[in-house]
Design brief:
747 residues, three-stranded mixed sheet, 10 helices
């Protein structure tokens, strides 16, 4: 039995308690019958929302890092605009410690897994294997939303009683039962020639999943309630709680499969597989998908003329083609029924209320069913070459591949229909790539040695079809649902749409005669970005404009890397050992949404005036209209140009957040992922105390990262509700650095 207690960020009392109990056994009932049993139980208790809460309701503003960056470290009580306090109006951030306690959480998860296997060798080389398994899963989550959270601040999609604490209770129960039966026969006795080897397998699998979800929201609790008080006294809410029970339709997967493996002299190998899967998620006539695959290889190093090459140990050419299906959508999306949930809402079906409980109506789900859904299918081609030279002191592989995914299952917006979205088979994506891996024994002596391993991967994706659309837009959600990502035919996943940054407007970009006459600024080239960046004047953000002088949006970049990989170096010498593992990525970009938050002074509902807290907008770097010696506003163009001659950034004051190319940063990196240093005590020492081996070691993770990225971590990905919006950095904590010290003792 294992028991782990982990605590971090004591501010906010984040605790994780984990219990694990496992039992695995095998019993030989007779010469031809074997029984296998495997039981595992786990329970995890977590208290606290952790370092990040971006998956919470209202994730637009509840990120921990955002509050830590924007909130003033000391109270400021200067008066601006009447009686308002600067501290309250400087930004929409709150004290970080309050933000942690106001988005508290308590979660308990239990999981039972039981598996049993029965293997019967009916006759020599003919084996029947029957497997059965059951999983019982339950997760209870209590969430607390204090008055500073986004959910409490807004109405409509948020709290029904804005400005008061709320709680949410969510209970998910799932049961999964699995049965797999396979019949395997090896033809070694029927084929007398030892050069031929043939193996055949036939199988059937049945999986059924049942799930129930109970969800309750309580709004309007007293504003002084803590999380514990809110969970204990949920009945004290001023507004009636809203609750619903959702029984998902049974998810049934029935599969039949077969496989044939053949090789001749160990040189020529062929494998063929056929699989048929039937899913209850799809409607009649679309339930079944059929997925064949085949693989072949040729060991060239065993051919005549190559066996005599002493420096050649292995050279194998291989090719495979395969198909794989995906039905990973929620049950009920395939048009068998339009699901409704039990609740206290006031929804109607065909104009009439439908009562599911004595106190409530049937509430329609937010999605539209689609009877035309079918399996998503991926077609894969892979060509590889494995090699080994000089007693495999140098070995590795080279692979090229093409994966084409058709009928992609995607959430598709259906505005104006009364529903939020519909799942559709919406397009085709092709990925082509090259992967190279190499392992080398640089030195191998009795008491010391050095080994090196490396790999590199290139991948290029291309959107081949969008279900009849030329462009499909998607919002990452951080910027009031502005559609910043988009997919276009011939493009790739990760394209970002926005304005192209041209720097800032200088004094020389304006008609000074017009300014001296009217006191207003007018550009010489006729461009006008006022609709995007606010009042036009020297220091304003300058954007690419069309022939009419209007800012234009277009593709500003793609976040996908040119190549990725890693390498490792290990060595041993006289009892000491060291292993260093590096990962790298080149050409990848990050959409740094934090730079909007931390370099703009926005004055509109929900935001504050002081938000330019990044070094990029420090005095001496950003445009200024103020003489900092006298405090006077500069109105003379010549003096304004002179005051900003040494600066290069635009004015931070803007009426809104703007997606522009400056926010897309190069995030190439080289990271020392782990480093382990160990020492094995001499055997002559340990044997004196009857111990075979003692090794002391220390392991550090994330010790070093080189990157030009200005954010905290180049490996960031905070907006993945959809795979269409990768590499967004918005209020994400960076990876932590850790050390582990230990000892391996064997008797």
């Amino acid at each position: 039995m294992e028991r782990h207690l982990c605590a971090s960020l004591r501010q906010g009392d984040y605790d994780r308690l984990e219990d694990n109990l496992g039992l695995k056994t095998q019993f030989k009932a007779s010469k031809r019958i074997t029984l296998d049993f495997n039981i595992r139980y786990s329970r995890i208790k977590v208290r606290g929302a952790g370092a990040n809460s971006l998956n919470d309701s209202g994730s637009q503003t509840t990120g921990r890092l955002k509050n830590a960056m924007l909130y003033t470290p000391i109270p400021l009580k200067a008066q601006i605009e009447g009686d308002d306090d600067l501290e309250e109006n400087s930004s929409d951030a709150v004290m970080p410690t309050v933000a942690v306690s106001d988005s508290d959480r308590k979660r308990e998860r239990t999981n039972w897994n039981a598996n049993a296997g029965f293997t019967w060798e009916i006759v020599d080389d003919l084996r029947l294997k029957v497997e059965a398994g059951m999983e019982e899963y339950r997760q209870e989550t209590n969430s607390f939303y204090g008055v500073t959270t986004y959910y409490s601040k807004v109405g409509g999609s948020g709290s029904s009683v804005p400005g008061t604490p709320s709680t949410n209770y969510n209970d998910v129960t799932r049961r999964r039962v699995r049965n797999t039966n396979t019949l395997n026969y090896d033809f070694r006795k029927l084929i007398s020639n030892d050069n031929h080897h043939l193996n055949v397998l036939l199988g059937q699998e049945y999986i059924i999943t049942e799930q129930r979800t109970f969800n309750t929201w309580v709004d309007g609790l007293p504003d002084f309630y803590t999380a514990e008080q809110a969970w204990t006294f949920m009945g004290s809410a001023s507004n009636a709680s809203s609750s619903n029970m959702n029984y998902a339709a049974d998810d049934i997967l029935l599969s039949y499969f077969g496989r044939i493996n053949y090789d001749f002299k160990g040189k020529y190998m062929l494998s063929a597989t056929m699989r048929g899967d039937g899913s209850s998620k799809f409607s009649k006539g679309r339930k079944w998908g059929y997925f064949p695959s085949v693989a072949a290889s040729w060991r060239l190093s065993d051919e005549w003329g190559m066996k005599d090459l002493k420096w050649l140990d292995n050279l194998k050419l291989r090719y495979s083609f395969g198909t794989a299906g995906n039905n990973n959508i929620p049950t009920g999306m395939g048009g068998l029924t339009q699901l409704y949930e039990v609740g206290t809402g006031s929804s109607f079906i065909y104009g009439d209320p439908v009562y599911w409980t004595p106190n409530g109506n049937g509430a329609s789900e937010s999605y539209m069913a689609n009877a035309n859904l079918t399996w998503e299918t991926t077609y894969s081609h892979n060509l590889g070459l494995d090699f080994g030279f000089w007693r495999n002191r140098l070995s590795g592989s080279v692979e090229v591949y093409q994966n084409t995914t058709e009928d992609i299952l995607m959430r598709y917006p259906v505005s104006g229909s009364g529903y939020s979205f519909q799942y559709r088979n919406a397009g085709t994506i092709r990925n082509r790539g090259l992967e190279v891996s190499v392992a080398a024994v640089l030195a191998e002596k009795a008491k010391w040695g050095v080994n090196f391993n490396a790999n590199i991967a290139f991948n290029r994706s291309r959107i081949m079809d969008l279900a009849g659309l030329e462009t499909y837009s998607q919002s990452s959600g951080w910027n009031n649902n502005v559609t910043d990502y988009y997919a276009v035919l011939g493009g790739a996943i990760g394209d970002i749409r926005g304005y192209t940054t041209l720097g800032r407007y200088e004094v020389g970009d304006f008609d000074l005669d017009y300014y001296n006459e009217t006191g207003k600024w007018r550009t010489l080239d006729g461009s006008n970005c006022a609709g995007v960046v606010g009042d036009m004047r020297p220091g304003s953000l300058k954007l690419l404009c069309d022939e009419n002088g209007t800012p234009v949006q277009g593709k500003i970049g793609n976040v996908q890397p040119k190549f990725t990989g890693g390498f490792s170096l290990s060595a041993y010498a006289y009892g000491f050992d060291v292993a260093a593992n590096f990962t790298y990525s080149y050409g990848n970009k990050v959409f740094n949404a934090n730079n909007v938050e931390f370099t703009s002074s926005q004055k509109y509902t929900g935001k504050g005036v002081i938000r330019n807290l990044s070094d990029a907008m420090a005095l001496g770097k950003r445009w200024t209209n103020v003489n900092w010696e006298t405090g006077a506003l500069i109105t003379d163009p010549a003096e304004l140009a002179a005051a900003n001659a040494a600066t290069n950034m635009w004015s931070p004051y803007m009426p809104q957040t703007v997606v522009h190319s400056w926010l897309l940063e190069d995030a190439s990196f080289l990271r020392l992922s782990s480093l382990t240093v160990g020492y094995t005590l001499p055997a002559s020492w340990t044997r004196k105390v009857r111990i075979n081996k003692v090794r002391l070691y220390a392991t550090g993770t994330n010790l070093f990262c080189w990157t030009p990225y200005s954010g905290f971590d180049p490996e960031v990905d905070t907006r993945r509700a959809t795979p269409m919006t990768p590499n967004v950095d918005y209020s994400a904590y960076p990876k932590s650095r850790s050390w582990v010290f230990g000892a391996n003792i064997s008797f």
